[in-house]
Amino acid sequence: MRRWNGWGNLHTVYPVPNSAMEYLTKRIGAGSQIPDAQLEEILARLPASRLTPMSLVSQEPQERVFHARGQSLPDWIAMRSGKINTFPDGVAYPNDEEDVRKLLAFASKNEIHVIPYGGGTSVVGHINPLPSAAPTLTINLSRLNRLLDLDETSRLATFEAGVNGPHLEAQLAKHGYTLGHFPQSFELSTLGGWIAARSSGQQSYYYGRIEDLFASGHIETPSGALDLPALPASAAGPDLRQAILGSEGRLGILTQAVVRIQPRPPLETFYGVFFHDWDSGVEAMRQIAQERAPISMARLSNAQETETTLALSGKEALVQWANRGLRLAGYDSRRCLLIFGVTGTPAACAHARRHALQIIRAHGGLFTGQAIGNTWRKSRFLTPYLRNTLWELGYAVDTLETALPWAKVLSAAENIQAALKTALESFNERCLVMAHLSHIYPDGASIYVTFIFRRSVDAEETLARWKALKSAASQAILQCRGTISHQHGVGLDHAVYLEAEKSPLGIELIRQMAYTVDPRGILNPGKLFS
Ligand SMILES: Cc1cc2nc3c(=O)[nH]c(=O)nc-3n(C[C@H](O)[C@H](O)[C@H](O)COP(=O)(O)OP(=O)(O)OC[C@H]3O[C@@H](n4cnc5c(N)ncnc54)[C@H](O)[C@@H]3O)c2cc1C
């Protein structure tokens, strides 16, 4: 059963040991347990639906509350404090494309705002209804989850777009294939959401980002349907797939997507490496990417993230033992952990590992074998549950990310973290900040930053702290000319920063595309652009 006010499955718990609490207390102060609002209280205050009845639409109160917010930190603050000021007026679960068409016609006729909803895992406010005189209908696409066609000759699979990660992979696995798209939200996020928010999987270095995997699709809009053909390549004008990628529900509802698949790899192994410091680790990552060493993923944590990951792991004795060994080997507190993976045939994996290790060793990296990599593999989709536990202990955890050319990676990582570290001074609070390189490319990398701060008993105050942090980090990203998002999308929280990246004319182009398919502006208004 899914949690309505936090991450994931209600019964999955990620415990935090006492030593980890001592670690956090020392760095940012003791957290206090603040009770959450009860679902019943929220249901009791739910405003009446403004929708006229329609056979496909439920106005059931619980459905409306469960679809009110996603997974951003402001969303969490709203859900946990009960201070949710907007709800969808109704929720529909279409069973097929025909239902989607009927719902769009109903919405167009009655001037109803429509929010396409995949897994609701957005971390930037994508699926939140906004205050408006018009009613809002959320269209949950989870029943559109079937594999419709498998073209093994071309290695193309056609799925209904509401399919979530595990269900998509299970349907492909039956035929011996994989898509290989594994965002950390894999458990709940959907194919349509990945495409609409330009998602990136943890192993996209090997399998490709969603824009590489999305071959074509069928989109229903208030102005009719758009059917894009699946072509290996085309020089026939601008690529409309690219417009759908990142369209965040504003250009229509993606009902089907054709994706590029691969045979399931015979072997996949993950390894741990320690570097003496961040700079040498980053240099090694750059060389790996520029020599196109055929690994399948790389995640390089900075010293703070390395220390915090070990402290929160709950394996106190093992960590102490490892720390002693590392110090003896000359890897002091500046050490940085790299996890890298290899995927493919045994021969390809051996070749990739050899190539990566040659570069890693040239930069002073200490190869520690598979133990750390195996732990990462086991917990890769579990780590988000830590956010639930820490929240309940009084701490808010959030993440943000950017991507920039290699020449700017070191300075940008420093500037963004420095901005976060001082952002709470006026609140007399501290913030624990850490970063890793999450994705590497020949010309640059993605910097992924995690920050932890104390919650206040006053939800407004917690929100004010978050706003100060988010604004400081976003300004720092803009100053470095990084993208405001490498993989989370724009939604509400990044919309104000988009013009700096796209230019006013670029925003106008996007706006005009949306106007063409949706002249009344009913599709997810306020997201991506205003
Ligand atoms: C714990 C956690 C970890 C995460 N890790 C990653 C990660 O590793 N990589 C990554 O890229 N992201 C990550 N995310 C962010 C999020 O999972 C992605 O943005 C994901 O692509 C959203 O998919 P979804 O199905 O949940 O979409 P939703 O959140 O439901 O919707 C996102 C946007 O897509 C639109 N949309 C959804 N489906 C359709 C459709 N069929 N047609 C048209 N529009 C549609 C919605 O209207 C909305 O604007 C993470 C989020 C969380 C909470």
Folded structure, characterized:
The protein is an alpha+beta fold and 530 residues long. It has a domain at 267-379: Alpha-Beta Plaits. 38% of the residues lie in helices and 20% in strands. The protein is built from 19 helices and 18 strands. The protein has helices at 18-28, 39-45, 61-66, 73-81, 97-110, 165-173, 191-196, 204-207, 210-213, 240-244, 278-290, 303-312, 316-328, 346-362, 371-379, 385-392, 406-422, 459-479, 498-517, and strands at 57-58, 90-92, 113-117, 136-140, 147-151, 156-160, 177-178, 214-221, 224-227, 253-260, 262-263, 267-275, 297-301, 336-344, 366-367, 395-405, 431-441, 444-454. The strands form 4 sheets. Strands 15-12-14-13-17-18-16 form a 7-stranded antiparallel sheet, with helices on both faces. A 5-stranded antiparallel sheet has the order 5-6-10-8-9. It has a 4-stranded mixed sheet with strand order 1-2-4-3, with helices on one face. Helix 17 runs antiparallel to helix 18. The longest helix is centred in the C-terminal third of the chain and has 21 residues, at 459-479. The two termini are 35 Å apart. It binds flavin-adenine dinucleotide. Flavin-adenine dinucleotide binds next to strand 3, helix 7 and strand 10.
